[in-house]
Amino acid sequence: MRQRIGVMLGDGIGAEIVPQAVAVMEAAVAPEPDVDLELHPFPVGWSSYLDQGHTLPSTTLEGLAAMDGFVLGPIGHAQYPKDRPECVNPHPIIRKHFDLFANLRPAQSRHASSPLHDDVDLLVVRENNEGFQPDRNMVAGCGEFQPNEDAAFSIRVITRRQSERIARAAFEAARRRDGKRRVTAIHKRSVFKLTDGVFMDAVERVAKDYPDIAFDDYQVDTFAMHLVMRPQDFDVILCTNLFGDILSDEAAGLVGGLGMAPGLNTGDDYAMAQATHGSAPDIAGKGVANPYAMIVSTKMLLEWLGAEGSHDGLTRAARRIDRAVEHTIADGRHLTPDIGGSASTHDMGSAIADACSHVSLEADRKG
Ligand code: ATP
Questions:
Q1: Measured from the CA of 292, which atom of ligand 1 is nearest?
Q2: Is the whole-model pTM more than 0.90?
Q3: Which one of 96, 147, 301, 354 is separated from 317 by 20 to 30 angstroms, measured CA to CA?
C-alpha cells in the first residue's frame, strides 16, 4: 500500500530533527513489504520565505491535499518580521485548512529521561482551532483588538460543534489506549460561565455515550496542582485550546522537558505529526536538539494511518518505533544533553533507526 507523506522541515532545529524522524520512519517500515512510503518535501517557514517569498506558498497547501499525512517541523514565527504579510504563521493555517481539530499530546515516562516520575502515561487532547488563540478561531473576524493604546481585548470562541468533536476524540482515544480508560475534562466554568458552560455541556452529553470510560472534571487551576502532585492518576485530559497548550507543557516537564513532548494534529481526513516544542533558536544549528518528540510524533502519524486504513503494516511500523525508542533510552548511550546524555541529534536518531531493525514486537506485547 502506497503512503504519501508530505514533509516540511520548518524553522530552527527542524532541519536537524525532521530528517532524523524521516530516517526512523523509513527504517520502521522497511521490514513491511506491503508498505510503500513515498516522501514529498514541501517548503514552509523562513527558508520558504527566502526562496519563494512566502512562509506558506499556496503550492504547499495544494500539494499537501494530495498526501495521506504530513510531518511538520517546528515553526519559529515569533522571529518573523511583523510588518510583512507574506510571513504568516503556517501551522494554524494548515490546521484550519485541513480541519485538524484535535491535537493529541502524550506525556510518557521513558526510563532515565523522566527525572521526576517514572510512571506517567498521559494524553492531553487539546482543541486546536478555536478558544483564546486569535489566529485559530474558526469564527471569522474574531481575535484580538486594541481600541486605544492602553487597552486590548481578546475574544475566546467556544462552539458546541467543536466541543462535541474534541470530546468524542478524547473518549475514543481513551478507548484505544492501553490506559486507565478515564477522561478528565478541564475548564474554569466558575468564571467563564458562558464559554466553558458551552464546552462542559457538550462534553457531559458526549460522556453519556461512553459508559465504559470513567469521566470527571476539574477547574484548570486545581488541576494544574494535581497534575504535578499525582500525575499517575490521570489518563486522557480533555482541554480547550489555551488550557491544553499550557497543561501539555506542564506534563512534558514531568517526563523530561519539551524534547520529550510529541504531538499529532488530527481531523476526519488528515493527520499531521508536529512536536509540541518550538524551533528552539537557542540551540538551532548546534546538533544537540532532542529528536525524540519529532520521532514519536511521526510514530503517532503511522499509528493513525494504520488505524484509518486498517493497515497492519503501518501499525507494526509504529510499534517498532515505540520499541526502538524505549530500547535506546533504556540503553542510555545515545541520549541528547537535555535528557542527561552527550550524544548529538544525529547519534540519537541513528541509534533509534538502527534499533528499529532488531527490536522484537513480540516483546512489546508481553510488556
Ligand atoms: P514557540 O514560541 O514556537 O512556541 P517555545 O516557546 O515552545 O516556542 P521552544 O522553541 O520550544 O519555545 O524552546 C523552549 C526551550 O526548550 C528552549 O530552551 C529550547 O532549547 C528547549 N527545547 C525545545 N525543543 C527542544 C528539543 N527538541 N531538544 C532540546 N531542547 C529543546
A1: 27
A2: yes
A3: 96
Instruction: Give the mutation target among 16, 258, 276, 286 for probing the ligand 1 site: most ligand atoms within 8 A of CB.
Output: 258
Return the closest-CA partner of residue 217 out of 242, 178, 243. Answer: 243
Task: For residue 229, give Cα distances in angstroms to 239, 251, 271.
Answer: 19, 11, 33
CA of 326 from ligand 1 middle (Å) equals 22
Q: What is the pLDDT of residues 253-302, one digit of tens each?
A: 999 999 999 999 999 999 999 999 999 999 999 999 999 999 999 999 99
- Please report the pLDDT score of residue 178 as a whole number: 84
What kind of fold does domain 1-104+261-367 have according to CATH?
Isopropylmalate Dehydrogenase (3.40.718)
Ligand 1 proximity of 258 Cβ (cutoff 6 Å): yes
CATH fold for the domain made of 117-254: Isopropylmalate Dehydrogenase (3.40.718)
Q: 309: which residues sit within 8 A by CB, 6+ positions away? A: 1
How close is the Cα of 350 to the center of ligand 1, in Å?
22
